[in-house]
Amino acid sequence: MRYEREIRAAFKVSIPVMMGYGVLGFAFGLLLVSFNYSWYLAPIMSLFIYAGALQFVAINFFNVKAGLVDIAIASWFVNLRQSFYGLSLLKRFKKSGKLKPYLIFALTDETYALLTTLKDDENLKKHWYYFFLAAFNQSYWFLGSTLGAIVGSNIKFNTAGLEFSLTALFVVLCVEQYKSLKNPIPFFIGAFVSIISLIFIPSDKMLVVSIFLSLVLLFTFRRKLEDNG
């Protein structure tokens, strides 16, 4: 089989992602249909959007009937980190040719982590290895979310509290960021702004406002943050 070595290597490396994406994708599918949306929206979103945290956030956007401008701004801020991921991989993807658009599209946190922490096997055709790794990861999310949506559509059970899975995801990411940064100031800023926005800002504008205010404060105290970093 052509590219068999690349496929085998990519699958082996992607197994930990399969464990996480399968479960979290299943939760997304269940949550989506619990709000009376059609099951087929889960595979469509997972195929063309493929942004785990943003897909969870999108459900809330739908429910509060947020405007397109609000959705666009919040989506940009939520996925802004991907721009920095891409910049650090420009050299790796430079000669990937027709595979490059998909490699850019499928660059999630987990895929980026694998690409930057694992050493490349010189015997592999690297760009095809990157492609299969990204494709395997997306397939896990796609299958998990689709299965969750189908199961949720046909088996009725209590999904109360399932929406907390997104909060739990961000808590884990926040803890990991704190361990890496070891500077409490950005986290205090985030908590302060979130509380203020929760009290004074309407729910459909809270996310955009809190992100904007956080950025303003972070830039304001940038020097202090760098000195403590």
Describe the protein in words.
- With 229 residues, this protein is mainly α.
- The chain has a domain at 4-158.
- Helix content is 76%, strand content 0%.
- The chain contains 13 helices and no strands.
- The protein has helices at residues 4-34, 41-48, 52-63, 68-78, 81-88, 90-93, 100-105, 109-117, 126-154, 164-181, 185-200, 206-220, 222-228.
- Helix 1 (4-34) runs parallel beside helix 9 (126-154) and helix 2 (41-48) packs antiparallel against helix 9.
- The longest helix is centred in the N-terminal third of the chain and has 31 residues, at 4-34.
- The protein is globular, with a radius of gyration of 19 Å.
- The model has no long low-confidence stretch (mean pLDDT 81).
Q: How far is it from the N-terminal to the C-terminal residue, by CA?
A: 50 Å
Percent in strands: under 5%
pLDDT averaged residue by residue: 81
What shape does the CA trace take?
globular
β-strand number: 0
Structural class: mainly alpha
How do the helices and strands follow one another from N- to C-terminus? HHHHHHHHHHHHH
Helix content: over 70%
| CA gyration radius, whole angstroms | 19 Å
Q: Give the number of helices.
A: 13
Largest sheet: none
- Poorly predicted regions are none
GO cellular component, one term: plasma membrane
Subcellular location: Cell membrane
Protein name: Branched-chain amino acid ABC transporter permease
Keywords: Cell membrane, Membrane, Transmembrane, Transmembrane helix, Transport
List keywords for this structure.
mainly alpha, transport, globular, single chain, 229 residues, 76% helix, transmembrane helix, 0% strand
